[in-house]
Design goal:
Elements (H helix, E strand, L loop, with lengths): L1 E2 L2 E2 L3 E7 L6 H9 L8 E7 L6 H5 L5 E4 L4 H11 L4 E5 L3 E3 L15 E10 L5 H14 L7 E2 L6 E5 H6 L11 H11 L3 E12 L5 H21 L12 H4 L1 H17 L6 H27 L7 H24 L5
Parallel strand pairs: 3-4, 3-6, 4-5, 8-11
Antiparallel strand pairs: 1-2, 6-10, 7-11, 8-10, 9-11
Helix pairs in contact: 7-11, 9-10, 9-11, 10-11
């Protein structure tokens, strides 16, 4: 389909929501303000049972709204079945797009390209915690080579070829988080390309409170372990989440166990030194990394990342422990 001499493929935008009243309006507004003919767009919103004003806000926009209590991958799979576009745009309910975001569709001239993601900026940049979390995300994504094939990207703002999504079996509904990592590895495992284009941007609303951030990372910890138990080779990491990040929960476990052993037995007092040196190593690692990011973005407040990294590692560790315990139970998942 096209207008004049230009072809405009139909794009189905899919947004899953759950109590996103703070951001869903701006998210949808940004989609309907895209520089793309509206007759070649559809927007599908799957709400997981919000008890705030999310649904009322969504109803103000010309979208297909479904109330379906489910996790995100289940909701995505439901929406993909009813989507009419040749391309599916997965957008987080706490993200908004710049007006030229659909320039990403030009990459699909290559039939081997299955998906393209834009760069990630911080929506609530004025707040210190979200800004620092955003610095970390952006710094890690800067390891990816723009416009080139990558191993995986987040579904925060991801344009996908719908037939490829269907070919690989859609999203893994057993993973409430980390489903994007697993999906991307299945896509690239089929020989398709994923592209990261940092010059086309979305703006993500990062968790504004420490408790909210901890809860988010705790859930990541649970589902990351579940992902690695099913796909052990992924623990080596990639450009976004490297091995250095993945081994931090193990180091925290070693530190805690070493303290306990050192306190329990006189013969194992030396384990207290093991704990001390392990925690010192982690602290120095966080300091060095935070200094690099502070210098990169020319913002000394990024040194708060030392605390953020410790909280993240703790949340991942606790989440991982919960996941392992559940996996060891008869019939555990």
């Amino acid at each position: 389909m096209g207008v004049g001499d230009r072809i405009f493929p139909k794009v189905s935008f899919i947004i899953t929501t759950l109590n996103n009243e703070r951001t869903i309006g701006e998210c949808l507004k940004s989609i309907f303000e895209l520089n793309y003919p509206k007759e070649f767009m559809e927007v599908i919103v799957i709400d997981g049972g919000s008890n705030d004003s999310t649904v009322k806000i969504v109803e103000k926009y010309p979208v297909k709204l479904f109330i379906k209590p489910s996790n995100a991958p289940e909701a995505y799979n439901h929406a993909i079945k009813i989507a009419k576009g040749d391309f599916v745009a997965i957008i987080d309910a706490d993200a908004k797009l710049e007006k030229d975001w659909l320039k990403l569709i030009n990459y699909f001239d290559d039939p081997d390209v299955a998906g393209v993601s834009g760069g990630i900026e911080t929506w609530n940049y004025e707040e210190v915690l979200p800004r620092c979390v955003g610095y970390d995300i952006k710094y890690r994504y800067n390891r990816l080579v723009g416009g080139k094939n990558v191993k995986r990207v987040a579904t925060m703002n991801l344009l996908l070829r719908r037939r490829v999504l269907q070919e690989v079996g859609g999203f893994n509904e057993d993973l409430p988080t980390q489903y994007d990592t697993e999906l991307c590895y299945r896509i690239t495992g089929k020989g398709y390309k994923l592209i990261f284009e940092p010059n086309v941007k979305c703006y993500h609303f990062n968790r504004p409170t420490w408790l909210g951030y901890f809860k988010q990372q705790f859930r990541y910890g649970i589902n990351t372990i579940r992902l690695y138990l099913k796909n052990p080779k992924l623990i080596k990491g990639d450009e976004i989440t490297d091995l250095g990040m993945n081994i931090q929960p193990l180091l925290l476990v070693i530190a805690v166990l070493s303290v306990l052993l050192g306190l329990i037995s006189e013969d194992l007092k030396f384990m207290l030194y093991v704990s001390f040196f392990t925690l010192t190593f982690l602290f120095l690692y966080y300091v060095v990394y935070s200094v690099k990011i502070s210098a990169f973005f020319n913002d000394y407040t990024a040194m708060l990342l030392v605390v953020i990294y410790f909280i993240r590692a703790t949340a991942w560790t606790l989440g991982g422990i919960v996941a392992v315990i559940k996996a060891l139970k008869p019939g555990g998942r």
